[in-house]
Description:
Two copies of one chain form a homodimer. Chain A is of the alpha+beta class. The first copy, chain A, has one domain (16-173, 185-209): Electron Transport, Fmn-binding Protein, Chain A (Pnp Oxidase, Chain A, Roll), CATH 2.30.110. Chain A contains five helices and eleven strands. In chain A, strands 1, 2, 3, 4, 5, 6, 7, 8, 9 and 10 form a ten-stranded antiparallel beta sheet that branches. Chains A and B meet through strand 2, strand 3, strand 5, strand 6 and helix 3 of A and strand 2, strand 3, strand 5, strand 6 and helix 3 of B.
Amino acid sequence: MEPIKPTTRTQVSRHRERGAYDRALINSVLDEALICHAGFVVDQQPIVIPTIHARIGDRLYMHGSVGSRMLKTLRTGASACVTVTLVDGLVLARSAFHHSMNYRSVVIFGTAKETVDLEEKRAAFEAIVEHVCAGRSKEVRAPDENETKATLVMWMPIIEASAKVRAGPPIDAERDYALPCWAGVVPLKIQPQPPIADDRLAAGTPVPDNVTNYTRENARR
Amino acid sequence: MEPIKPTTRTQVSRHRERGAYDRALINSVLDEALICHAGFVVDQQPIVIPTIHARIGDRLYMHGSVGSRMLKTLRTGASACVTVTLVDGLVLARSAFHHSMNYRSVVIFGTAKETVDLEEKRAAFEAIVEHVCAGRSKEVRAPDENETKATLVMWMPIIEASAKVRAGPPIDAERDYALPCWAGVVPLKIQPQPPIADDRLAAGTPVPDNVTNYTRENARR
């Protein structure tokens, strides 16, 4: 895999100390985040669309209907920006000004390429299902020929990429530490709720472990 | 408040049945979502940045350092797209193809204006703190003159806006309902974890109710 080097586009400018170009960190954020927000331009208008992604090595895959405006635009070789954000907690300071969020985000710039090769397309489908729920691709019916044809798969290289991370307690102005208000962090987590079985589920079908014990942290591997 | 009417930009094209232009729905999604993803264009490159927002009436406020590239770009009157996404659950179908997500998203197109008026700027600061944690703006030190000057506040009209919602069980192909695999929905929720008090908190400072009982659903009103 190519190393990640900051470019003029990915050099974090605000809060440089929060910028990171470590591939393991970038990968872990991409893998934990369920969705990304893909940005592209149509007639000079920026458009930001939430979509599911999945990573294989240093490629970020996105998919959707062949009718999707986003994918049709990316297919033309349009510049894109894919951003992924994990909100880890509220940072509650003693002053309004020093309130913040703990987060891990990744921004990827580049252009996407279509996955035409059938084997790679199948691997991408599998990676996307596994990204959502590890182990599931082996439990469900794989895409047939028509479904495969109706689905466009595009990938972006995870090369021009950067992460930005804030962690830890609030940093208040020295004069504010004496204020009597509570300050600290409220960690936030995505918590799965009890699964709701489909009405037409065959009686006695067990809930699989990867659903019962679902968490984003171990969503993959 | 101006009514919301679909324009060529906000008319949902894929899955039209999921499109919605109801102001109450749009407002509720904007209010529940902790952050948005703001898209803008610099030298033909789309850039997507996560940021906190807050709504007052039909205005969406964003704020940050006067040095922020995003805000400096918006200040020039650049076209913007602000997208907010709530992931409500995994939709696990019997076929890979019919997997989906339950979500509520809002897309707003337009250009942002700077909030220069001091009273409006203070109201925006308050709305942003309240957006993160209801009741908190009264408990913390308000921004002083320097902090106010160092912060740029921009707002976008919530007029050219649309929501997109998917809810409910998986919709499988008729032939797949007989498959023996589990299918259904795994609802996802943002769950606050026990608050972590700042190390320098004065002994005996109580954890306020709005922190103890924090949820995004009742984050506002």
